[in-house]
Specification:
It is a single chain. With 512 residues, this protein is mostly helical. Helix content is 85%, strand content 0%. Helix 4 packs antiparallel against helix 13. 52% of the residues are buried.
C-alpha cells in the first residue's frame, strides 16, 4: 500500500504538471483521446483480464510444487501476449485515420489529425504493458507485491520528466514519448524480482500445454467483460467530444482524483488479497473465503466511505490547490469540480467491485462478472444519454457512479448465492457504522469551511485534517472494529519495531 500511495502521489503530481502546461485545452483532449485505442488493446489482450485468469491456474501449479510446469505455462502466456498485442498494434496503426474519426467525431479536423499522430506513438505501449502485466501476475502469485507496486510510480515519473523537459520543445508530443518511456520502466523494474523467483523463460507457443487452455477459457469471458467496460470510456470520449472545449479533460481530471483513494486503498488491498483468495479456493476452504472476503470488504468500506464524502465536500478547494495554476484556470476548476462531485458518489462501489470481482476470479468464474458488467455498461450508456442534456459532462460522471453502484449490489448478491455467505451481518453492521461516521465527518468539514472561508489551501488541507480527526472520533465512539483493529495494528507494528531496534542495539554492543 505504501508503494501504491507513492504511485498515486506521483500520479497526482503528473496531473498537476500537465494541468499547469495544458489546462483543459483541445490539445490535451487529443492526447487523452489518443490513449483510448492503445488502452483498449492492452485491456482486452493483456490487462487485468489475463492476470485474473492466469494467477489462479499458475497458483495451483505452485501449490502442487510443479514449478517447471508453472514456469513453462508463464513462458507460453508471455509469448502469446507479445504476438497478439503486436499484431493488434500494427492493425490499429494502419487504421488510425478511420479510428480517430470514429472516436472523436466532435473534434475539428486539425485536432482529429493530432489525435491520430499521438495514438500512433502510443501504440507501442500495449505491447510493453502486456509483457509487464504478465510479469506482475507471476510476482503476485509468488506473494511478491513491492516491485509491481513500484512500477506505476516509475511510469508516472517518466511522464512528469517528459512534461517538464520535453514538452517545451515537442509540445504535446513530449507527453506521448514520456508514456512510452514510462511503459518501458514499468516492465524493466520487475525483471530483477523475476530472476530471483527462478524465472525459466522458454521461446515457445505450445497452446496444447497443460494449463494454457484453462487460462484461455477463463480469459475469454473476462476479456469480453473488460471490452464491455471499455465501452464506458469510449462512449464518454465520443459524447464529451461534442460538448464545450475542455469537457473531456475535466472529466479525466475528476476521474483521476476519484481514483486516487481507489488506488491507494482498493487496488492495493485487492492485489494482495487475490492470491490468498485463489489459495483458499485451491484448498477448497470456501467458508474461510467468505469470511476473508467479508473482512476485506469491511476494511475497504471503512476507508473509502469517508474518502467519498471528503472528496464531495472538499471538491472545490482540492481542485484549486492541486491543479489551478498556469493554463488551468478558474473555469477549469469549475468544470472539474462539477464532474468530481458525481464521481465521488461511486467511489465505495468501485472499491467493492474491485474486491468482489477477484473473489469470482479465484473461484475460476469469469463469466458472472462479465454478464454483470455487460448489463452495467448498457445501463451506463442509457443513463449517460439521459443525463448529459441537463448536467453536461457531469451527467456522464453521475451515470458512471450510478451504474457501478448497481454493479456492486448485483455482484454481491450473485457471490452470496455462489458460496452461501459473505458474513453479511457483520458486513452490514460495519458499513452502517462507517457511513454514519463519514456523514458526521462531512457535516463537520462543511461547518469548518464556513469558518475558513475562501482560502483554498487552508480549506483543502485543514478540511482533510479536521475530517480525519472527526471520523476517527466518531468511528471510535460507534465501536468500529476496523478502527480498533487499525489502532491495534499500529501498536503491534510499533512494538515490533522497538523490539527489533532493541535487539540490534544489544547485538551491536561489544561482547565481554
Amino acid at each position: 500500500m505504501g508503494a501504491y500511495v507513492a504511485s498515486r502521489v506521483l500520479g497526482l503530481a503528473r496531473e498537476m504538471v500537465i494541468a499547469r502546461q495544458f489546462g483543459t485545452s483541445a490539445e490535451l483532449g487529443a492526447y487523452l483521446a489518443a490513449f483510448r485505442i492503445p488502452d483498449l488493446i492492452f485491456q482486452l489482450l493483456a490487462g487485468g483480464a489475463l492476470g485474473s485468469s492466469f494467477i489462479p491456474v499458475f497458483t495451483v501449479y505452485l501449490a502442487r510444487r510443479q514449478r517447471h510446469t508453472a514456469w513453462r505455462l508463464a513462458s507460453i502466456i508471455y509469448n502469446l501476449v507479445a504476438v497478439l498485442t503486436t499484431l493488434s498494434a500494427v492493425i490499429a496503426f494502419v487504421l488510425t485515420p478511420l479510428l480517430t474519426r470514429w472516436l472523436v467525431p466532435g473534434f475539428d479536423a486539425e485536432i482529429q489529425a493530432l489525435t491520430g499522430r499521438l495514438m500512433r506513438i502510443m501504440l507501442l505501449t500495449p505491447i510493453i504493458f502486456g509483457l509487464s502485466g504478465i510479469s506482475m501476475a507471476v510476482l503476485n502469485a509468488h506473494q511478491h507485491f513491492l516491485l509491481p507496486a513500484i512500477a506505476p510510480a516509475l511510469y508516472n515519473l517518466a511522464i512528469i520528466a517528459a512534461a517538464l523537459f520535453l514538452t517545451p520543445f515537442l509540445d504535446i508530443y513530449g507527453l506521448a514519448v514520456g508514456v512510452v518511456a514510462g511503459a518501458l520502466l514499468h516492465l524493466l523494474v520487475q525483471w530483477p524480482a523475476l530472476r530471483r523467483k527462478g524465472w525459466q523463460y522458454a521461446p515457445t507457443l505450445e497452446l496444447g500445454f497443460p494449463g494454457v487452455r484453462e487460462v484461455i477459457s477463463l480469459f475469454l469471458p473476462r476479456m469480453l467483460g473488460l471490452g464491455v467496460m471499455q465501452v464506458n470510456f469510449v462512449v464518454n470520449t465520443v459524447l464529451a467530444s461534442g460538448l464545450a472545449t475542455g469537457s473531456l479533460a475535466a472529466l479525466n481530471y475528476a476521474f483521476l482524483l476519484m481514483m486516487l483513494p481507489q488506488g491507494v486503498f482498493a487496488i492495493a488491498i485487492a492485489t494482495a488479497a487475490f492470491p490468498s483468495f485463489s489459495e483458499l479456493v485451491a484448498r477448497r476452504q470456501i467458508t474461510e473465503l467468505g469470511e476473508t472476503l467479508s473482512a476485506t470488504l469491511r476494511a475497504i468500506l471503512f476507508l473509502t466511505l469517508p474518502a467519498s464524502v471528503g472528496l464531495y465536500v472538499l471538491r472545490y478547494p482540492l481542485v484549486q490547490v492541486l491543479l489551478q495554476r498556469g493554463e488551468f484556470t478558474a473555469a477549469s476548476t469549475q468544470a472539474t469540480a462539477w464532474a468530481l462531485q458525481f464521481y465521488a458518489l461511486g467511489l465505495p462501489a468501485y472499491a467493492v467491485v474491485e474486491i468482489v470481482s477477484r473473489a469470482f476470479y479465484a473461484l475460476h468464474d469469469t463469466s458472472t462478472p462479465v454478464m454483470v458488467a455487460a448489463a452495467t455498461v448498457a445501463l451506463n450508456v442509457l443513463l449517460s444519454l439521459l443525463l448529459i442534456g441537463p448536467l453536461a459532462h457531469g451527467g456522464l460522471a453521475l451515470a458512471n457512479a450510478l451504474a457501478v453502484t448497481v454493479e456492486m449490489l448485483t455482484l454481491l448478491w450473485c457471490l452470496r448465492r455462489r458460496i452461501g455467505t459473505v458474513a453479511e451481518g457483520p458486513l452490514l453492521a460495519s458499513a452502517t457504522r462507517s457511513l454514519a461516521a463519514s456523514l458526521g465527518m462531512g457535516i463537520g468539514i462543511a461547518l469548518a469551511l464556513r469558518v475558513i472561508g475562501e482560502r483554498a489551501w487552508w480549506a483543502a488541507w485543514g478540511g482533510m485534517v479536521i475530517g480525519v480527526g472527526i471520523y476517527g472520533v466518531l468511528a471510535w465512539a460507534l465501536g468500529s472494529r476496523e478502527w480498533h483493529a487499525l489502532g491495534g495494528w499500529i501498536v503491534q507494528r510499533g512494538g515490533q519495531r522497538v523490539l527489533a531496534l532493541t535487539r540490534r542495539t544489544a547485538d551491536s554492543r561489544p561482547k565481554e
